[in-house]
Automatic annotation (TrEMBL):
Origin superkingdom: Bacteria
Stored InterPro entries: Acyl_CoA_acyltransferase, Bact_Acetyltransf, GNAT_dom
Keywords tagged on the record: Acyltransferase, Transferase
N-acetyltransferase domain sequence ranges: 14-171
Pfam families, A to Z: Acetyltransf_1 (PF00583)
Name of the protein this chain belongs to: GNAT family N-acetyltransferase
Upper lineage: Bacteria, Bacillati, Actinomycetota, Actinomycetes, Micrococcales
Gene3D superfamilies in alphabetical order: 3.40.630.30
């Protein structure tokens, strides 16, 4: 699938495809870069926390540009792979990253919509994700796409910053 993003020509628009084991290292490196950009510095342990999630992929979509490699990806894992407070039947959108120089073009939104559609296609009725509450662009994106806060904010175990669970009813999303 190819998608046209804001400010991108057809030649520059990334093609979406299913991720594979061969993409793991590039996706982890992209996750680390995106987190370092978000946080203002690299944080020890980010790669080590992300890497095992790829072994439990329920949906893994990468956005790739010819000559530039993977520009973004989203990874959702099977239910019960998130926090103990997550609904037991909810797939978990564990990682969503866009290359820092590709942000602001709608790629994150396109990946988020694509993973919700794929999870629905796989038979899931609900999905959750966890976001740092001070990551305002991400929070705004999730809210705009129909994700709603679930439960109380909590402290992120690695970053020691406030985070919030967001949930999406995939049946409502598909109808909306």
């Amino acid at each position: 699938m190819s998608i046209r993003l804001r400010g991108a020509s057809a030649r520059q628009s990334p093609a979406f495809r299913t991720g594979s084991a061969a993409d793991t290292a590039e996706c982890v490196a992209l996750w680390v870069r995106a987190c370092a950009t978000r946080d203002g510095a690299a944080v020890a342990g980010v790669a080590e926390r992300a890497r095992p999630k790829f072994d439990h992929a329920e949906s893994w979509i990468v956005a790739e540009e010819t000559g530039a490699g993977i520009r973004g990806f989203v990874l959702a894992t099977t239910p019960k792979r998130g926090l103990p407070t997550d609904p037991p039947d909810a797939a978990v959108v564990s990682l969503l990253a866009v290359a820092p120089d590709a942000q602001g073009r709608g790629l994150g939104r396109a990946l988020l919509v694509s993973v919700a559609e794929e999870l629905k296609h796989h038979g899931h009725k609900h999905a959750v994700l966890h976001v740092l509450t001070d990551n305002h662009p991400a929070v705004d994106l999730y809210r705009h796409e129909g994700w709603r806060p679930l439960g109380e904010p909590f402290q992120h175990s690695l970053l020691k910053r406030p985070a919030q669970t967001y949930a999406l009813d995939l049946d409502s999303r598909a109808k909306g």
